[in-house]
Amino acid sequence: MAEWRATRPGAQDALEVHLRRLNGLPGNAPSLRELDALIDRQHYRLVRWKAGVHEINYRRFFAIASLVGLRMENPAVFRETHRLLETLLKAGRVTGLRIDHIDGLREPEDYLRRLQGLARPAPDRPLYVVVEKILAPPDETLPDSLAVQGTTGYEFIFQVAGLLVDPAAEARITATYRRFTGESATYQEAVYAAKRLVLTELFADAVSKLGAELAELVARDWQWQDMTRHELIVAVRELMAGLPVYRTYRESTATAGATDRAVLAEACRRAVERNSRLDPQPFEFLRSLLAGDYPRASAPADYKKRLAEWVLTFQPYTGAVMAKAVEDTAFYTSSMKTGRVSLMQPRRDRRLP
Questions:
Q1: What is the mean pLDDT of residues 275-292?
Q2: Phi, psi torsion values for 150, nearest 5 degrees
């Protein structure tokens, strides 16, 4: 562009005149029509920055609209984004990996299996992989189905806290906190309130879309076709708010395991309890779908496939909701009264499945 301007006398002046006309005048809406027409021809839609909360149409990193998520479940995307890593692994220049935010992947188990396939030095020496994964205290463990050696060690923080923090002081700290803030909610109540906040302020679009898509899908089943969009949106929101861990790990071709079933049952119980004036059926239906008990085996194959895809879309959102609500909100606003502080047992050695 600089060379073009230099070789054409008067080009700079003409360009500036055109840009002034294109930019229009502040407060003069008709003068912005040409600029609006130019923007309208782009491959993106330019919107007010807050519009993404309600109208975003792509996967993003947590609630950061400027960080677009890549579809690692797509073999071509996985291959291209891991090309350099595969070269380094096969050359022996990289011997271990740390994977960030594993819960944000659509299919983390499948991703980790494919990651192991990039370079295996020997059958008995798998690629060393640890994942950034927060295990909900006191007893959540890493699923055995994940092809990893362990986590990056967040649970060690809990162990150190249990060793160095005197639980006898908790009552006085909580009393002081409540006198100073006027807050009397328990930690669990604070977490629920924070989840409802981020679901409304940051993930409203995801909740609405998931509920609306599910309503369209189940309209094909005469037994559930009268379940309304509103009921399913509420069910999605409340099960996300009630989930006691970051996410479940059901894969599309299987039903949920025993651990995930227990987690979903607890989330459903909380949702029904907190919404006692509502019909519990939508909450139970959603629990059944997420666990893989619905649809029945005799349902059309395409119907089962679309519902399984819906579940795969649902699961990564719960980790993002938990992170924003607990790590970024409740940890800063709650007295943190979680019960007796205990020292967690060290993790057992993990072997890859």
A1: 97
A2: 160, -165
- Please give the Cα distance from 223 to 221 (Å, whole number): 5
Q: Assign 3-class secondary structure to 235-262.
A: HHHHHHHHCCCCCCCCCCCCCCCHHHHH
How many of the other CB atoms lie within 10 Å of CB of 165? 11
pLDDT of 347 reads 40
The tens digit of pLDDT for each residue in 112-161 reads: 999 999 976 566 778 999 999 999 877 888 998 899 999 998 888 878 88
Phi, psi of 57 (to 5 degrees): -125, 30
Query: Rounded to an integer, what distance in angstroms lies between the CA atom of residue 246 and that of residue 7?
Result: 61
State how far the Cα of 62 lies from the Cα of 57, in Å rounded to an integer.
14
Q: What are the boundaries of each domain within the chain?
A: 21-55, 59-161, 187-333
pTM: 0.83
Is the Cβ–Cβ distance between 53 and 204 less than 8 Å?
Answer: yes
Q: Which amino acid is at 326?
A: V
Give the tens place of pLDDT for each residue, 250-265. 998 789 999 999 999 9
Residues in the chain: 353
